[in-house]
Design a protein that fits this description.
By secondary structure, the chain is an all-alpha fold. The chain has helices at residues 3-22, 29-36, 40-46, 50-83, 91-115, 119-128, 142-157, 163-183, 189-203, 210-230. α1 crosses α2, α2 packs across α3 and α5 (91-115) packs across α10. The termini are far apart.
């Protein structure tokens, strides 16, 4: 990569860090130059105005987000594919599916927002900025729309009667988590887990609280395990 291209990339990454720290309004050429530790004139040389700089930075961000979302949901869809081979008519089966999906989705969004403090924070500042930069109006919801499409497909794959409406429930959980992330360094995992559970228990028509169903599934698994031991049939079932 040529020196000019490396400098341009450094400027874009510095821009994202500035947005994460200070929001869109605080992202100036001076702030970006200070963050990148380069001369102010170099920022202006590579980007003629602030709008072009912001658009380039956000394009890179959404490119990374699309790849991440695709990988995450492919794993979840693979999990659902295994579930779809099971007997959905048994309540315990639906409960176990709802429980495992709740665990998986909660872990995904929780670990993502804690593992990378830059990109998620940029997304949050773009989404919740009361007065977004006019140059970003056409791109600020791209990530949200792609996530919504995945959530609708997720609800379809778990045989939801109304995938669009049910996906809105899950989107609401993501928004709840995002707001939690803005307010504190470490959001409450249990609050998010319970909210995700309420969505999946509704979609899969499972009754009971997260704690109740967790205990129920544990008892069922233990009963099955004990039965295999009693029958001396544990290893033949593996």
């Amino acid at each position: 990569m040529k020196k000019g291209e490396l400098t341009k990339r450094d400027i874009i990454e510095a821009t994202l860090r500035v947005i994460a720290k200070h929001g869109v309004h605080g992202t100036t050429f001076r702030a970006v130059a200070d963050e990148a530790d380069i001369k102010l004139s170099l920022v202006g040389y590579h980007f003629p105005d602030r709008s072009v700089l912001l658009r380039n930075a956000i394009a890179i961000l959404f490119s990374r987000q699309s790849s991440l979302i695709n990988n995450v949901f492919n794993e979840i869809f693979g999990l659902i594919g295994k579930f779809n081979q099971r007997d959905f008519r048994r309540s315990i089966s639906r409960a176990e599916i709802a429980l495992l999906l709740s665990d998986a989705v909660t872990d995904v969004i929780f670990n993502y927002y804690l593992s990378d403090r830059v990109d998620p924070r940029v997304l949050l500042n773009l989404k919740f900025d009361i007065h977004p930069d006019p140059a970003l109006i056409h791109v600020r919801n791209l990530g949200h729309r792609s996530l919504k499409a995945y959530l609708i497909e997720l609800c379809r794959q778990i045989n939801s009667d109304s995938p669009v409406d049910d996906s809105r429930l899950l989107a609401g959980v993501f928004t709840l988590f995002e707001l939690e992330s803005l307010q504190q360094r470490r959001p409450d995992y249990r609050k998010i887990h319970n909210a995700v559970w309420q969505c999946f228990s509704h979609i899969l028509n499972v009754s009971g609280s997260l704690h109740e169903v967790s205990e129920r599934v544990k008892r069922h698994k233990m009963t099955s395990y004990d039965a295999l031991l009693d029958q001396d049939d544990l290893f033949s079932s593996l």
